[in-house]
């Protein structure tokens, strides 16, 4: 009876338990079912992600309440719940969008959806981590799965190279992160986030060793969100990895990493806000500037989306740099908008297919308005949104993070962000010009139904966000409020 009483309350971790058990079951189905089981595994993987979302969407029905478990190492609150739902949506659409590609490119292997499920499990652990050790376990579970799927197309030299680059640089970032964690543990005597904050307060602020630890932790986490100067892997991996893998990389892992970064600086290092705020401001400015200028000369649309994602992570970090509840609310809204825009953009990129295979050059979109007007119009709307042009969702996302920066007195950061957004608009509008005003290239093959569905949903969200913005902002505010 005593041993039973010592068991942790597993209810807050119910979605993770569903994913862990379901992933292992699907792995067995794939192993013993052979090639015929691939489509069943893919469909069941999407269904499993939907099942894992149910306890988050309907906590009362599953007997789940916000709180901590596993001796305070795992936390479930409004912030984790909101971002977990976004992560599950991103992973589900990434698997669905890969179906046609896998069929046409001899890519159908059951390990792919299983690896995405395991990566998603790691991301959910990251979002609920309330302890450095749990954070690292979740991060490595996610990272190891991502290293494998980056090099998943073993017949492609580019894919293998992408996986190797990601693995080597990811290992370096993990080492930096671990070193930073060991320094923080050494100077505070704790690994739990609330305990670290209490120890820093008791010590009367930061010490030199603690600041070093904080810098190494932020460096390791900046790699995961591909923020400058730890962005070097992003363009090569985005270009080299199979396109569905790139779509996955651009969506769910960015949300999880940004959520984890937000939680650790707000929960564990709140007493030394001034120290980490300077680092976040620098990383944000560098990411926005590089994302704006480096993408201008790109000809490959996947590389362009890599630099675009670097820039967008810089914009999201503007909200985090504010260090306020309004700033975190801005980050949550920004990641919601970013997910919708990214899924829509990659639905179009995955549709760039001719009889001889996939194409990736921006010039291949020439005259798309005359060969496939609906796709050209919807991709144009998504590009306008990525540029931050009203009345689309991208404009409101940037508005909330810049507003938080202004309220926090970070006027130079907000001004640089707006200028970077103006510069970045050039390369988005250049694609629109290519689609609507250049001579048409050969038409693409018809868009598969799952890509049509993804593009349609994301476009509706992007266009009509202003209609239901109030409810999204309320949910984002409630999620951010749980950290303060």
Any chance you could write out the topology, listing elements then pairs?
Elements: H1 2-5, H2 14-33, H3 38-57, E1 67-69, E2 74-76, H4 78-104, H5 111-128, H6 132-150, H7 157-188, H8 193-202, H9 208-224, H10 234-240, H11 243-250, H12 252-268, H13 273-294, H14 301-322, H15 325-349, E3 353-354, E4 357-358, H16 368-371, H17 373-387, H18 393-407, H19 411-437, H20 449-481
Antiparallel strand pairs: 1-2, 3-4
Quick synopsis:
The chain contains 20 helices and four strands.
Number of helices: 20
SS-based class: mainly alpha
Oligomeric category: single chain
Total strands: 4
Outline: globular
Question: What share of residues is helical?
Answer: over 70%
Unreliable residue runs: none
pLDDT averaged residue by residue: 90
Strand content: under 5%
Describe this entry's structure for a reader:
- The chain has helices at 2-5, 14-33, 38-57, 78-104, 111-128, 132-150, 157-188, 193-202, 208-224, 234-240, 243-250, 252-268, 273-294, 301-322, 325-349, 368-371, 373-387, 393-407, 411-437, 449-481; strands at residues 67-69, 74-76, 353-354, 357-358.
- By secondary structure, it is mostly helical.
- The model has no long low-confidence stretch (mean pLDDT 90).
- Helix 17 (373-387) runs antiparallel to helix 19 (411-437).
- The chain is 75% helix and 2% strand.
- Strand 1 (67-69) and strand 2 form a beta hairpin.
- A two-stranded antiparallel ribbon has the order 1-2. Strands 3-4 form a two-stranded antiparallel ribbon.
- The chain is globular, with a radius of gyration of 22 Å.
- It has one domain.
- The chain contains 20 helices and four strands.
């Amino acid at each position: 009876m005593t041993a039973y009483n010592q068991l942790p309350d597993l209810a807050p971790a119910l979605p993770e338990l569903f994913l862990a058990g379901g992933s292992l079951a699907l792995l067995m189905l794939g192993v013993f079912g052979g090639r015929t089981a691939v489509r069943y595994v893919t469909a069941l993987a999407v269904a499993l992600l939907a099942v894992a979302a149910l306890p988050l969407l309907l906590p009362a029905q599953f007997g789940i309440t916000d709180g901590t478990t596993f001796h305070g190492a795992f936390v479930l609150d409004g912030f984790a719940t909101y971002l977990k739902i976004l992560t599950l949506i991103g992973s589900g659409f990434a698997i669905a969008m890969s179906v046609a590609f896998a069929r046409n490119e001899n890519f159908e292997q059951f390990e792919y959806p299983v690896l995405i499920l395991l990566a998603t499990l790691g991301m959910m652990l990251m979002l609920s981590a309330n302890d450095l050790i749990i954070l690292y376990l979740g991060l490595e579970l996610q990272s190891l799965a991502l290293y494998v799927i980056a090099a998943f197309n073993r017949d492609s030299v580019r894919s293998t190279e992408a996986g190797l680059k990601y693995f080597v640089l990811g290992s370096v970032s993990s080492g930096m992160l671990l070193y930073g964690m060991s320094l923080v543990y050494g100077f505070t005597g704790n690994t739990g986030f609330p305990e670290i904050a209490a120890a820093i307060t008791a010590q009367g602020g930061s010490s030199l060793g603690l600041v070093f630890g904080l810098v190494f932790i932020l460096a390791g986490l900046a790699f995961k969100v591909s923020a400058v100067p730890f962005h070097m892997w992003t363009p090569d991996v985005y270009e080299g990895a199979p396109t569905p893998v790139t779509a996955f990389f651009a969506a769910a892992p960015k949300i999880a990493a940004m959520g984890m970064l937000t939680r650790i600086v707000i929960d564990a290092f709140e007493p030394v806000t001034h120290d980490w705020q300077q680092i976040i401001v620098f990383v944000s400015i560098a990411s926005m500037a590089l994302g704006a200028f480096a993408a201008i000369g790109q000809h490959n649309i996947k590389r362009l989306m890599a630099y675009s994602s670097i820039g967008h992570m810089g914009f999201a970090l503007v909200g985090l740099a504010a260090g306020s509840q309004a700033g975190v609310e801005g980050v949550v809204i920004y990641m919601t908008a970013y997910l919708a825009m990214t899924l829509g953009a990659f639905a179009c990129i995955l549709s760039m297919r001719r009889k001889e295979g996939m194409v990736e050059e921006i010039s291949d979109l020439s005259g798309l308005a005359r060969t496939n007007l609906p796709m050209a119009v919807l991709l144009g709307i998504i590009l306008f949104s990525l540029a931050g042009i009203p009345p689309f969702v991208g404009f409101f996302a940037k508005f909330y993070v810049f507003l938080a920066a202004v309220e926090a007195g970070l006027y130079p950061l907000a001004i640089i962000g707006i200028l970077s957004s103006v510069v970045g608009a050039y390369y988005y509008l250049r694609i629109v010009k290519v689609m609507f005003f250049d001579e048409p290239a050969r038409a693409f093959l018809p868009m598969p139904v799952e890509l049509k569905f993804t593009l349609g949903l994301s476009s509706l969200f992007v266009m009509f966000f202003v209609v239901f913005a109030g409810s999204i902002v309320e949910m984002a505010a409630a999620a951010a409020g749980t950290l303060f």
